[in-house]
Design a protein that fits this description.
The complex is a heterodimer. Chain A is an all-beta fold. Chain A has a single domain, classed as Immunoglobulin-like. Helix content of chain A is 0%, strand content 50%. In chain A, a hairpin with a 2-residue loop joins strand 5 and strand 6. Chain A is globular. By secondary structure, chain B is mainly β. Chain B has a single domain, classed as Immunoglobulin-like (Sandwich). Chain B is built from no helices and twelve strands. In chain B, the strands form three sheets. In chain B, strands 2, 5, 6, 10, 11 and 12 form a six-stranded mixed beta sheet that branches. Chain B has a four-stranded antiparallel beta sheet with strand order 3-9-8-7, with no helix packed on it. A two-stranded antiparallel ribbon of chain B has the order 1-4. In chain B, strand 10 and strand 11 form a beta hairpin. Chain B is globular, with a radius of gyration of 13 Å. The chains are: A mainly beta, B mainly beta. Chains A and B meet through strand 5 of A and strand 5, strand 6 and strand 11 of B.
Chain lengths: 113, 110
């Protein structure tokens, strides 16, 4: 069974540009989560989808971040325009049951210059 | 707000030494607690979890953790570490979302 996959693994962009990160959850997992780890800090929750609906987006930093999950399968996280402080590793996770074990992807390392 | 505190940010041990990584959480309700591990170049993966029942939880690779409610603690232990345990370890609490501690980098000397 394939795990959670994320694309790209690395992205280097300039301040002001747009970047879109993709996450493919484990097949059949209705719950999809985005997290971010800024260097030297803890991994922080961004948002949670149940199927295509946003269950909780309380962790989204600001309106430059837009997450979608059309069709309830894969999800994208777009940052527009990117700022220096957006640099970090963006993790995606999925779970079958809300509250149970979350399976994490390898992360996307975003560097904003 | 709920929070998780990990006592050590960086731990260096020799092989065969015993390990205890401290974790305290602040949450007054029923807690679901986790330890996740990230080996170099690999995904975050679940090491063990506590939802209810026996407060001494056994995980993979010989790890265990003890939930002590009165101390709000969930320390991770392993009696004898191996070089392959070199990784970053994250304590976490579940509160509709996972709240992570800052992580502890464990380096095992061969």
């Amino acid at each position: 069974e394939a795990g959670v996959t994320q694309f790209p693994s690395h992205s280097v962009i300039e301040k002001g540009q747009t970047v879109t990160l993709r996450c493919d959850p484990i097949s059949g997992h209705d719950n999809l989560y985005w997290y971010r780890r800024v260097m030297g800090k803890e991994i922080k929750f961004l948002l949670h989808f149940v199927k295509e609906s946003k269950q909780d987006e309380s962790g989204m930093p600001n309106n430059r971040f837009l997450a979608e999950r059309t069709g309830g399968t894969y999800s994208t996280l777009k940052v527009q325009p990117a700022e220096l402080e957006d640099s970090g590793v963006y993790f995606c996770a999925s779970s079958l049951v809300w509250g149970n074990e979350q399976f994490f992807g390898p992360g996307t390392r975003l560097t904003v210059l | 707000a709920q929070s998780v505190s990990q006592h050590n940010h960086h731990v260096i041990l020799s092989e065969a030494a015993s390990l205890e990584l401290g974790c305290n959480y602040s949450y007054g309700g029923t807690v679901n607690l986790f330890w996740y591990v990230q080996y170099p170049g690999q995904h975050l993966q679940l090491l063990l979890k506590y939802f209810s029942g026996d407060p001494l939880v056994k995980g993979i690779k010989g790890f265990e953790a003890e939930f002590i409610k009165s101390k709000f603690s969930f320390n991770l232990r392993k009696p004898s570490v191996q070089w392959s345990d070199t990784a970053e370890y994250f304590c976490a609490v579940y509160d509709d979302k996972i709240i992570f501690g800052k992580g502890t980098r464990l380096h095992i000397l061969p």
